[in-house]
Amino acid sequence: MNWITNYVRPRINSLFSRREVPENLWTKCPECGTMLFHRELAENLNVCTNCDHHLAITPRTRFEALFDGGIFSEVKVPEPITDPLHFKDQKRYPDRMKAAQKSTGEKEAMLVAEGEIGRTPIVAAAQDFTFMGGSMGMYVGNAIIAAAERAVKLKRPLVLFSAAGGARMQEGILSLMQMPRTTVAVQMLKEAGLPYIVVLTHPTTGGVTASYAMLGDVHIAEPNALICFAGPRVIEQTIREKLPEGFQRAEYLLDHGMLDRVTHRTKMREELITILRMLMNLPPAVVGDLPAPEQAADEAPAAEAETKA
Fold it and tell me: Could you tell me what percentage of the chain is helix, strand and coil, using 3-state DSSP and rounding each to the nearest 5?
């Protein structure tokens, strides 16, 4: 009986039991509910293959798809004081920071990098919405200033990808002070005659929209991105009226003159290359290199003889 219980039954159960599928293999589209295989979703830059909904994408993944060959180098950002106000709500601010760093693998809510896009040298900065809602704190302000200073030093354009819920409440007034600081950084680029392009992604709200996100020379948005200062729910509760369909979405803002373009994520790289090279007075991008024509062996001596003659 022990032999049947201890060996035969577990053996039969192992043969016929369902294998557990890892949870991270599939992602459910929040818009249409389609289950998307992780490799297929990654190849499409986190865009739903069924309804074209743009899911969140991390700055590092975005840069790998943006820069030539996925090669870029990070720009060092000065680190501010960790907890200047000793803020505490349900958790201490340093504990929230550690939890966000552990879940995202990033130091803070913005990544600054430099490299080439279509052989055009640029400096790029991108916010990570998964890091405390991409909230704008002192580090984000330092990151934008560092990006602007690096762009001015190297005489390169700056491309910024915004994704934020607004200012970081745990830093209080120090967070709101990043609005004028980043505005001064953008002015540095304008005085240097360098292009500043902003790509607004879902969502871009609050103090970020009220500062550096809407100060670009060209504003591009991803489809259906929410771009606003106060959200539609707050506005409806304040004015007690029903808002128009698609209010504060990218397409609505484009129709009302707030944006220059609404571009699909898979076409964003080509769009940026065209605009950057045009603003920098560069020739159109080279799509591909062709090898130099090989000279035929019998033509080479004849050409040399004619040269000597």
Answer: 45, 20, 40
The answer for residues whose C-beta is within 8 angstroms of residue 118's C-beta and 6 or more apart is 68, 269, 270, 273, 276, 277, 285
Quick one: which of 247, 214, 253 has its CA closest to 233?
247
**Residues contacting 210, CB < 8 A, separation 6+:** 179, 229
Exposed e or buried b for every residue in 93-107, given b needs 16+ CB within 10 A? beebbeebeeebebe
CA atoms within 13 A on the CB side of 293: 4
pLDDT greater than 90 at residue 289: no
Going by C-beta distance under 8 Å and a sequence separation of 6 or more, which residues neighbour residue 69?
Answer: none
User: In this structure, what DSSP letter does residue 245 have?
Assistant: T
Beta strands 35-37 and 26-28 are antiparallel
Average pLDDT over residues 178-191: 97
Q: What is the mean pLDDT of residues 273-293?
A: 86
In whole angstroms, give the CA distance from residue 164 to residue 209: 9
Residue 141 sits at the vertex; the CA angle it makes with 102 and 149, to the nearest 5 degrees, is: 115
Taking the alpha carbons at both ends of the chain, their separation in whole angstroms is 105
For residue 167, pLDDT over 70 is answered with: yes
